[in-house]
Amino acid sequence: MIYGYIRVSTKEQNEDRQLVALRERNVPEDNIYTDKQSGKDFNRPQYKRLVRRMKKNDLLYIKSIDRLGRSYREIQEQWRLLTKEKGIDIAVIDMPLLDTRRGKDLMGTFLSDIVLQILSFVAENERTNIRQRQAEGIAAAKARGVRFGRQEKEIPADFGKIVREWEQKRLTVNEAAGRCGMSESTFYRRLREYRSSINQ
User: Fold this and answer.
1) Same domain, 21 and 112
2) Residues 137 and 163 in one domain
3) 38 catalytic residue (yes or no)
4) pTM summary value
5) What's the burial of 63, exposed, middle or buried (CB within 10 Å: 0-12/13-18/19+)?
């Protein structure tokens, strides 16, 4: 049987390029498994289903080694599990040297092991670089004054009046927060800020 595995890091990313590559290799649609999550580990539902389904002498296509994963150690471990323990052949479409159907002799195995180690290292290194670029981008954005998270709720123009009514027990905290369009915890926090600004 022929299988295909697709992975994209987020639900927003498009898997079409990988899908086209697998269809060109005549992988049946029912045998294509897709995960939309990080490649940091192999705790992925569709990948696990695929591994359980595959049998000895089946063939697995993946577009590139980083679609399998981005952890150097875990890529090596999964490759060994699939090829040695389960007896499955793997063909990496973007890297013809990583096709276990070829060169089953000592030299072929040696070459594919070297290529696998290099590409696994590159995949993990790229993941590290992505995280570093994200952190640098966030730091630069914060330095420019960009705020992350939910936008701060503006206090209403009559906040002081609402606070006085609440202090005079004419409003419950729930009613006061509701009139401000805030949760109770936000109301208390903005109340502290309000009192602090008055006392300055």
Assistant:
1) yes
2) no
3) no
4) 0.57
5) buried
